[in-house]
Amino acid sequence: MNKEELTTLLANRFQRKETGESFGLSALIVRKEELLATARKLKKDPSFNFNQLVCETVTDRTGYFELVCHLRSVGEGHEMILKTQVEREGTPLLPSLYELWQAAELFEDEIYDLFGIRFGNHPHLRRLFLDEEFEGYPLRKDFTNTLDL
């Protein structure tokens, strides 16, 4: 299925969701409360069969964080981007995608470590690069380095 066909299929199956293009791929944007159910449908529905989570990362958009998931159907050869937004204030929380793709474990550890976003139902959320005692999250735009190196 080519990009145009996939974008059309996404628009038809997810009629109340925003579809378009991101990074040259078909894209679907959902509310954070819909992330896990949408991801499950994208994986389990034979029309999509997105059986690989290529990458899961975050962009700091100043007013909010944007989760970006790059999905691939290995057998079908098509790819897409799944996005959602989460607030910056308080302790940002998103559902973990680990139950669908085990590759999410390390991606979500990295996101937590560098952005401070927590993932519900993650098997063992931990800092990946920084010490547990490190204060702050260095990839946030509002991060101020207080270390004297």
Summarize the structure.
With 149 residues, the protein is α/β, with parallel strands linked by helices.
SSE layout and pairings?
Elements: H1 3-13, E1 18-22, E2 25-29, H2 35-44, E3 52-60, E4 64-72, E5 79-87, E6 93-95, H3 104-115, E7 118-120
Parallel strand pairs: 2-5, 6-7
Antiparallel strand pairs: 1-2, 3-4, 4-5
Mind explaining what this structure looks like?
The structure is a single chain. By secondary structure, the chain is of the alpha/beta class. 22% of the residues lie in helices and 29% in strands. It has 3 helices and 7 strands; from the N terminus they run H-E-E-H-E-E-E-E-H-E. It has helices at residues 3-13, 35-44, 104-115; strands at 18-22, 25-29, 52-60, 64-72, 79-87, 93-95, 118-120. Strands 1-2-5-4-3 form a 5-stranded mixed β-sheet. A two-stranded parallel ribbon has the order 6-7. A hairpin with a 3-residue loop joins strand 3 (52-60) and strand 4. The N and C termini lie far apart (52 Å). The relative contact order is 0.15. The model has no long low-confidence stretch (mean pLDDT 94).
